[in-house]
Every structure is written in structure tokens, then in C-alpha cells.
Automatic annotation (TrEMBL), chain A:
The keyword Lipoprotein applies. It is found in: Cell membrane; Cytoplasm; Nucleus. The gene is CHP1. This is Calcineurin B ous protein 1. One of its GO terms (molecular function) is calcium ion binding. Keywords: Calcium, Cell membrane, Cytoplasm, Lipoprotein, Membrane, Metal-binding, Myristate, Nucleus, Phosphoprotein, Protein transport, Repeat, Transport. InterPro entries: Calcineurin_B_homologous, EF-hand-dom_pair, EF_Hand_1_Ca_BS, EF_hand_dom.
Amino acid sequence: MGNSNSVTLQPEEVERMQNETGFSASQIERLYSRFTTLDKFGNGALSREDLLRIPELAINPLGDRIVHAFFRDAEDESINFLQFLKTLAIFRPIRKGREPRYNSREQKLQFAFRMYDLDGDELISRDELLCVLHMMVGANISDEQLASIADRTIREVDQDNDDAISLAEFSEALKRTEVEGKMSIRYLN
Amino acid sequence: MVPVLAMLLNGVLLFLVPPLLILYTTLMILAPFGLSLGVRKKYVQLLIKIFEFGRVRLEQKRNRKNQMSGDGHHGEDEDEEMDDKLLLVPDPDSEKKARENGRRILRMGSVCEAEPKDLVSFQLDSCLDYIKSGIQAIVDDEVTKRFCAEELKSWNMLTRTQQNYEFISWRLTFLWFVGFFFRYFFLLPVRITIFFTSVSTFVFVVSSVALVPECAAKRWIYDKVSLMAFRILTRSYSGTIRFHQLENRPRPQGVCVANHTSPIDVCILSCDVSYALIGQRHSGFLGLLQRALTRASSHIWFERGETKDRSAVTRRLKEHVDDPNKLPILIFPEGTCINNTSVMQFKKGSFEVGGTIYPVAIRYDHRFGDAFWNSSQYSMLHYLFMMMTSWAIVCDVWYLPPTTRQPNESAIDFANRVKASIASAGGLVDLMWDGQLKRMSVKQEWREKQQQHFTRRMLAINKEIRDDEQREKDE
């Protein structure tokens, strides 16, 4: 059960969120219940610590990056429910025959791109790639090896020779990957 | 103040209604002997009927609402395959089971021991699985929901379980009012009276038994007295317990392990078998009780700092277990209260002692009252109050066959085996996570294990690629 001072969602709010994210009303209610459970101090907003309190996320090597993705547009290091929903909306499965507005392949790719793009300048530099690699493998691979992996990856993907990976180059590199399946999760009603 | 008032109210009620007084007295006489008039069973059945009625009403209302808002897209979200989810657990490489909770853990075909010096294959999309796993954990994870009360599938007429109260029907509301009055103005005073009389009697009797010199008769008396006291105490929250597989009851020179949900677990288990208790030495009233208990029979109380010294703890446990005159020890290896939907990691301390282990599974029926004690949200007093104003505490206890550690089994494997058997007997989810996560944050080494796991995945993929290339070259 959520906190005792959780505010119930009004139907107009739910409808607005449906339009802005594409979730159904019952999915929104379920996610709201989850939001209030995570919101430990009951102030209607989540902080980074609230999210990192989830053990399965805290041991994830990319845990910090994923949390950062939620806080990208946050002003004071906290996000409200709508911001929470909007980030989660990117992971809705793409339904055949319906034009995806918030969960298109491009948006999913952009989310993955931002995992690597630490400073948000729409370019993955060599240092940023090295940093993320380090997050993923820890101390199990030597720094020289990591450096050579980073160099090789950039060489293979970089097309305009600026020694960095742009979003277009990233999408091109992943064009054979089944992004829709790998970056979609099932939201229960 | 409150107990006095309660007892007055109770007294008034009983004397005004003589049949009730006779019933009450009969029940109190029968209770210590484990006999019962079957009143509670009828009560429980009546409650089940009422809940069914409430649930049907709620569903009708919900279906009508869904039809109006055109929300019937239930078919759409069911067209996915069982996705190969990357499930992160604290110790990925020792996970022997291929299936955890019905979801497949994405593992490599074979963990290869290639040298990290080999050119490791890294693709930009290697991280997608981890992103998906992370978002999945944010939406729903296995651990955080174990530390708060279980969600009920349908309302059980208690305001504390109703998340957003919507007006359903006059009849339900009327039922709720009736229930409210019944629970707070009839059940509560009766229960408080029983609680206080039983506790005072217990303290008195235990202190008397303590005066008897050590002999077989004393042990027999203590056994009977303990059973009687806990049976009456269980009436104070209308505990309805069903024991299964009585042939596996714990015996002396054994250690009984069970899953932990609330302090009431001790009362529930002690209604059938007398145990030697383990715990921290308290001061004040509880300390007094502990000292009296120790004079009556051997229990194991630790000073606050002693629990850190693992070998001393094991030694004391072993001494106790070796003595045939002592009662079986009751231990909760999880170390903390979990909400009775899952079993979390068992600490291996009690499994290193040797001797026979008697696993016991306890499963509460949450419809009648949730026994889980969320110690960060409610104080003990508040919790007891909630227990006494619930409908009843209904639970099942399974005595599982006794087991001992196999020769080539480590203590941790033994603990996991027992944990798995308790989980399957009680219909609970078997988790590898540590219950202490309630209060502490994850250990650094778990994240490091994930990093290791990722590295080996990359190496394995690389090896596969190189094997394919080799094969192509050979052809």
C-alpha cells in the first residue's frame, strides 16, 4: 500500500496523462500506486535516492544512468508523476497498425543513446564511451583494453570522422538490432 | 487507562447478557486444552460469505465503469511472447535454478574461461538488456513490495485496506458500519481483557514454576503451562490456526526454522509445541519476563554485542541442541519480518549448528487481518491495536519433514534447500534477496558481481563469434 497521504488522481488528470503518454487509465492508476510506494516521504515527488532504493536497480551497472534519464529535465532534483510517466511511456510496446507517438523506434534509440551521452550534447565522445564501458565491466578488464575497445567501436561507427558518435550514426549502427523488442516492456492493466 | 475502561465495558456487556457470560467462561476453560466450540470456524465462514458478496458488488461496479470509459482493451497487452528477461540477482553465477519465479534468467550457454586479454567483443547494443531490466525494476521489482502489507484482491471491509474509497452501494456501506461497531465495541474490549488476563496469569505462573527445582516434573509442568498460556493469548486476537502434518512436530535436540511475518509467529507456533526461545536481552518489563522464563526453562538470550561473535553464538546453540532435556529452539533465519508473500534469504548461522532441522511454513490468510508488522511504519503498540481490531488472524502451519545437512552440502546450500521447501509448502515466492534490504542499501560487491557477469557475457559472445569465423574458414 502506498503512503497514507497519497492523493487520489482526478479523472481529468488521468485523461490528460492518457493523451500525453498513451497509457490506458488502469495502467496509469497502477503506475501511480507504484509511484506512491516508491515515494518514501510522501511529498508527491521522487528523488534519485527513492529510485536507487530499488535493489534490482541499484545493482544494475547502468543503474545511475537510467535514473539520470528520468531526471534529465527535472529542475530541482525531483520528478513528479507526469514526468515519471513520460519517461516510462518510451518503453511501451509498439502496436501494429497504430502510429506510435511517444514510443517510436527513434525515441527508443534516443533513450539508449542518452545512456552513453553523459553531458547531453548529442554526441558520444571517446571519453564518454570509456566511462560507460567502465561502469559496465568494472575492474574486470584493463584500462588499455577498454581504451582499444572504445577506439575500435568509434572507428567502426563514426562516419563523418569527428571522432564521436552522433545520434544518426548510433541509429545506423543499430539498424539491424531489434530495438522494438529489446526496449519495450509489458505494462499490466 | 484504556485497559481498565475496556475491562469495565467488557464486564458490563457480559453481565448484562448472561448467556454471553456462560459462553465466555466455557471458552476460557476450553482454550488451554486446545479444544474449541467451533465458534471461530463458523465466524470465519460467515466472514468469507460477506467478503464474497462485497467482491461481487465491487466487480459489477468496476465493469460498469470500464464499459463507460471504453477501457476494454484487455486483449492488446497479451500478444507478447514470454520475453527473455535479464533478471538481476545478487549472485548471478551461483544461480542453480534455471527458472526463478517463472521467469527465465538470461544466461550464456557456457561460461567460457577465455583470457580477458583476448579481444573482447563489445557492441553498442550490449547495454539494451540492462536498460530494459532497469526500467522493469522501476515499474515492479521483487523486493520492495515485500516490505509493505500485501495488496488484497478484494476489499475486506476494513478501511485500512481500502486505497481509494468509492461509494459502491448502500448495503456494503451498511455492512461496513456494522463491522466497524462489532470490531471496535465488542471484539476489542473482549480481546483486550483476554490479553491482559492471560499475560498476567502467564507471568505469575512462570514465576511460580521457576521456584520448582530442576527435575523432569518441572519440565512437564513448564510444557503444559506454556501451551496453555499461548493458547489463551492466541484467543486475544481470534487466532484460527490449522496445523498440517502433525507427525513432523519438532522434538527436543532439534532446531525449528520458520518464515517470519510478525511477532505473533511465536505465539502461533507455541500453541502446539513448546519451544526454547532465542533473542536479545531486553531491559524493563520484557527483561523481567525473560529472566523469569529462563528460570523456568532454558532459553537463549544474548547481550546486544554478543550476536557479532558468530562462533560464540554457534557454540551456545550447539550446547543447547546436544542436551536431550532441553526444548527445541525456534529460530527465524530471515532475521526480520517479511510480508508473507515470499521467503527471503536465510542466514546460515542456524544451519551450521548440526542436529536436525524442522522446517515449518506459516501462511496467513490476509483477508481476515494482515499480520505483517511493518516496524518502520507502526510501533508495536499500534500494531497490536490493529491486530485486535481485525476480523481474525487465520493461518495455516505446515510441519515439513525433518532434515539434516548432507555430507557434501555447504551451510548456505542447506539453508537454500530448506528455504525452497518452506516456500513451496506455503505457496510463497522463493527469493535470493536479503531481508535486511528493508533497512540497508545494496552491497557494493553485488554490483561488482553484475559487472563480472557482463564481462563474461561479452567474452562468451566473442568466443561464439570467433568459433563461427573459424568454422567458416575451415569450410
